[in-house]
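hey can u run this one w/ iron/sulfur cluster bound, need the structure tokens asap thx
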Amino acid sequence: MEEVGKILDTNKGEFKDDGKQLLDDYISSEELWACTSCNACVEACPVSIDPLSIIMDMRQYLVMEQSAAPSDLNNMMGNIENNGAPWPFNQMDRLNWSTES
Ligand code: SF4
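ok here u go:
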């Protein structure tokens, strides 16, 4: 709000886009992926902004539009696609544990 106010002050009450965006200019992708989706911010927000929904939308944008998911996440998604599970093991080997002594 302070930055918007400064823009309005310098442009005689007219808002001019400064080209900044929420992602990267205010929130880094590292911060975005650090969220554990615990929902505490949603429950604590006094004006019902639902920050977690915004975080999920930005994550979705990074993955779907920028192909910029963290490498661990890409590995997991590749494993789900290939093995039907997040682990790098073939589906045919899943019950191997039952025959191990
Ligand atoms: S859901 Fe909200 S409070 Fe929980 S880790 Fe993510 S940003 Fe933080």
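The mean pLDDT is 93. anyway lmk if its weird
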